[in-house]
């Protein structure tokens, strides 16, 4: 085999391996409980000494308690990432509890590193996500229904029922990240220039200043 063929073959092998592992890398040991105090920068969090690990490292409590939805959006989320739950490190999962007051909204946002699977425990939600071709997939969810929000796509959940909503999600990353569209564009610090935002959203400066002042 000519050298250039070997190079090409190797490149394809590496490419296909990286496609297989397109989400988080598989663990190389039984566990790697996060040492959230470690000064070492790695892809993830450094491991705590395994001989010091206890069952408590694999336990998180408190998701029985509703979040405080007394805010403008009528919404609260308790996202339990590796920061709060060291045992999650390297496993590619996160859990969260979502609470919605009447007409509460989880505003349009995306998770750059995770697909989300949401289950409604109580109440009714109108949920949806928007594809890269701007197609909206939406659905009314009732108790016991499960919905999947594909990785990276903008999505929302809105309480359309006549009672508060309790829901839980699992996400396919130990640190899914949240990009809240309105906050990231209108609440950026330092602010994105008026020229850019007014042109992007076809807004006059006064309206733009008003929107920015809300964030
Ligand atoms: C909920 O949040 C509101 C607004 O910040 C606050 O006034 C209220 O005391 C909080 N309620 C509880 C139970 O923490």
UniProtKB/TrEMBL annotation:
Classification via SUPFAM superfamilies: RmlC-like cupins
First and last residue of the signal peptide: 1-22
GO molecular function: manganese ion binding
PROSITE patterns with a match to the protein in the record: GERMIN (PS00725)
Pfam families: Cupin_1
GO cellular component: apoplast
Gene3D superfamilies associated with the record: Jelly Rolls
Domain Cupin type-1: 61-209
Listed InterPro entries: Cupin_1, Germin, Germin_Mn-BS, RmlC-like_jellyroll, RmlC_Cupin_sf
Disulfide bond keyword on record: yes
Keyword vocabulary terms for this entry: Apoplast, Disulfide bond, Manganese, Metal-binding, Secreted, Signal
Disulfide bonds: 32-47
Location relative to the cell: Secreted, Extracellular space, Apoplast
Residues given in the record as oxalate binding sites: 106, 111, 116
Top-level taxon of origin: Eukaryota
Binding site for Mn(2+): 109, 111, 116, 155
PANTHER family tied to this protein: GERMIN-LIKE PROTEIN SUBFAMILY 3 MEMBER 3 (PTHR31238)
UniProt record similarity statement: Belongs to the germin family.
Name of the protein this chain belongs to: Germin-like protein
């Amino acid at each position: 085999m000519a050298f250039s063929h070997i190079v090409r073959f190797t490149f394809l092998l590496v490419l296909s391996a990286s496609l297989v592992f397109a989400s988080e890398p598989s663990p190389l040991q039984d566990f790697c409980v996060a040492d959230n105090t470690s000064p070492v920068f790695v892809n993830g969090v450094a491991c705590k000494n395994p001989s010091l690990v206890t069952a408590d490292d694999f336990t998180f409590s408190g998701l029985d308690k509703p979040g405080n939805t007394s805010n403008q959006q009528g919404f609260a989320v308790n996202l339990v990432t590796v920061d709060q739950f060291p045992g999650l490190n390297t496993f590619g999962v996160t859990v969260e509890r979502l609470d919605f007051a009447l007409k509460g909204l989880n505003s349009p946002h995306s998770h750059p590193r995770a697909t989300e699977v949401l289950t409604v425990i109580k109440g009714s939600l109108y949920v949806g996500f928007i594809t890269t071709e701007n197609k909206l997939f939406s659905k009314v969810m009732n108790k016991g229904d499960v919905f999947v929000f594909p990785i990276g796509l903008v999505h929302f959940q809105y309480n359309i029922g006549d009672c508060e909503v309790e829901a839980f999600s699992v996400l396919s990353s130990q640190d899914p990240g949240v990009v809240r569209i309105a906050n990231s564009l209108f609440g950026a610090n330092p602010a994105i220039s008026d020229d850019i935002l007014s042109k992007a959203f076809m807004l006059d400066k006064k309206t733009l200043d008003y929107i920015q002042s809300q964030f």
